[in-house]
Here is the input.
Amino acid sequence: MHKQLKIENLTIYTKDKVLVKDINLEISTKKPLVLLGESGSGKSLVIDAVMGILPQELKVTGKILLDSIDLLKLSKKEREKLWGKHITLLPQEPWLSLDPTMKVIEQIKEVRQFTYKNNENQSLKKSLEELKDVKLEKFTNSYPYELSGGMCQRLTIAITHVQEGSLILVDEPTKGLDKKLCDSIVDKLNEQIKQNKLLFVITHDLEIARKIEGSLGIMVDGEIIEYSDTKSIFNNPQKEYTKRLILAEPTFWKIEKTKPKDETIVHIKNLSKQFDKNILFKKLSFDIKKAEIVSIVGESGSGKSSLGNIILEHLSSDFGEIIKNKNYSKIQFQKIYQDPPSAFLPEQILKDGFLDLLKLHKIAKEKLYSFLEKFNLSKELLNRTPSEISGGELQRFSIIRVLLLKPIFIFADEITSRLDPISQKEVLFLLKEIVETENLSVLLVTHDRTLAQIISNKVINIEEYK
Amino acid sequence: MFINIFIKRFFQVIVVALLSSSIGFLMMHLLPGDIAMRIAAGRYGPDGLTAEIAQSVRMELQLNKPLYEQYLISIFNFLKLDLGYSLVSGNSVIQELKVQLGYSFVLALLAFIVSLIIAIPLGIFTSISKYKFVNNSVMLISIIIRAIPPFVLALILILIFSIWFNILPPAGFESWKNFVLPTLTLCLGLAAVSNRLITDSMNDVQTYSYFRYGRFKGLSQNITIKRHGIKNALIPLISFLALQSVYLIEGVVVVETIFAFPGIGHALVHAIVARDIPMIQGTVLIMGLIFVFINLIVDILALNLDPRLKEKKYNGK
Amino acid sequence: MENKRTFYIGLYILIFLAFFSILSQIILNYESDQQDLFNIFANPSLEHPLGTDQYGRDVLVRVAQATQLSFFLALITTVTAFIPGVTLGILAAYKGGLTDKFLNIICDILLALPGLLLILVLIAFSPGDFLPLYIGLALILWIEFFKITRLKTKSLLVEPFVESSKSLGFSFFYILRKLIIPKLLPMIFTISTFSMSTAIIAISSLSAINVGIRPPTAELGSMIIELLPYYEEEPFLVLLPSFIIFLIVLSLQLMSKRSVNA
Here is the structure.
């Protein structure tokens, strides 16, 4: 049982660039470490370095001491021997790490059988118990594609239980999962801490960072800008960035709700929709008024997106009706997408796309430029392709694109779930502002109920309509 | 999902049957000259040709009836599996086909199996080997063999083994030795492509997340390859099987003709040159049916290997 | 394997062959079927740089013409296949529904038989004639263009950016122009080179077994078979056309990126 992981002066670089600079971190039993940072901050590289799976082109200096052994000094083979037995990895987006052609039970049984060389019967028996522990016994003989994201997560956590490794590396445990699952994940991770395991978590999720108490490191652009106990950082952040980051959590937002006008933009009555055998929602009724923000919350795949698509006539309903205000044309009902780059033609320079749009609708260029200024985007960004711009900036471009058409209704389909907390706050504040200045309505889909409560005038829980 | 496969293949069976039965009919009536006379000439020789004999042939084949009736009769015969008699040899088509099919079937099967025996170990070994030289030389040889059309390959092999070294017969059929060169020709072409496919697939698989996760769980490289690698690597190979069957059937036609090997492919080509219409119909029918059948097996195999395909609306959520 | 390098190797070989064949015909003044029975199997000389064949015909001219024929046939069959293939593929993907089903059924019909067999069925009506060969090949090559275009277009059309472009008011043609066609072009090129190699193999194989293009037309496959009986005396005359077919097919396969990945 290992007692401590110490990272000293870790630097990772290519021949042109330094990617991670001078990292110093410590993990000990009962004191887990959370490394918090956006995508691109370098946190993945740190955890890859500990695991020993950095791509060959990257060079590493410094020390990674597991108790007294410097992992960086071990040969590739020696490091691979540690996998599963001393070091355990909980991968991000676990559904990607499960063999699609192998049954669930096999994927957990094989750890006992081959890593620990137990006999087959023993392995089977114990694995069935493990599945029971995480409430997956009904899926023993299923294949990964039959499991939801959360279930895949439980499976990989169960696999972690089998492994006796005392250093557990957790890679973005909440990525791609509903906010609701956050607490259960934290519970499971805390169990590991109770068993004296060393826990190293990397994440961009503030809630996880807050709920796993131990040390917290804030990572930006390859460097650790703040590193202390979790409690101290949250109560008393020192650096500017950290302050902004903490305030980016919806609970801390100081925002006033908008004041809806009387005019109804969309009237939904007794709406029902089902996909094959799945009832998405039944007898759903509500109104969306002008200058109102309505949020829809519910589990993944529950039909929230389908509702918006039905309103926009991209999808048809089974029963019920949607009455849209006749004073407005179809093109004034628009949508903003969850994954910013996928809403733009790949490899098309933003400028070309926008110019085509302006030309098509005979809108003056000045409108575009004034929006750019208002949304704090430099004109130079127009010369780039969608993949060359950050998610937050691209999402702002999406909003502008839609605003140019003078919309009356925007369906915002989880528009911030792929963004880091600070960008999320920026985008949603902006959205609220344009609701007020342009007098338009927003139907916001989100899986973050706190956020929904804070920013919207009305929250609809789609689970109540099943 | 199973039902869809069966429907599609069954439909293709009907197409093959209709096509082959129609060929006969179309050829008899579209080709220049009087078909009755030609058939009579084929049977009794050009000197034995008289007006009465031609007329009796006409009656026998019911060529005096209206066209649509003739067509229906020909389809009916087909369903009865009455494929008529060869215009060249006079034997029943079915008899001839039975014999020829036997030869071709053995040839194709042998070629396929030998190609797998060469390709699978070679492919896996090339992907595992640490030496770049191995991968590069296998790749080079494969590229070269692939670019040689089967008939040229056949001729080269004849030149080497029959003419230079004189150890294998170039044509006809007397003994098991006649199998060697045709089999070799076909299997080299197949193996050249499949071994590269397997190597690439094996290399790809090792980069997949689930493969790496298997290693992270503590499984050794060999165990991971065995449990997570090979099965997933073979999946693309299955769809390639269908392509291989195309190559085999087409190859059989060309190679048998070059080697004068008494199989169905050779029979078809001869029949075309000699305008032996019943034989053309028969060979096309049999080869077509076998082809559809092979595709059916491949579809079922693919479904069994990749459970995701069973899910009609698998969308990766 | 570096695709770019193999691509250029293939391209240069093809260009060389094309030039060689055209140039040879311009320089030498013989007809490909000009016989000179007093001069059979002549050794290479200034008059006949590669000698003469069994009928005294100049070998270089015949080979040059045969090469040109192969290029020409491969090209026209591929073009005849790709124009309807791509158009219908896009149509099937865009319209979906009955149109899609109908076109798929046609594909299933054509795929009921292996390609060469289908061509043979057509050739049976008039062996040695060019038309059935051309139609048969075009029908077979069409399938690949159709299927791949349809698949790719379909996968593109379900992407969010297509939906968003439509919502913003852009027409299908805009999406076609700016997105679909640029993405399809590289694929179409790959399929085309592969189609041409398939065509050349098919034509030469069929000619070699005497049901494709027949003598006296100079065709590489039939030339090989014609000269096979004289192998002992004049091995070069058999090996040269074989080598040229090999080179053309090799270079086309090198140019189509699929060559190393099947």
Summary: The two ends of chain C are 13 Å apart (CA to CA). Residues 258-262 of chain C have pLDDT under 50 and may be disordered.
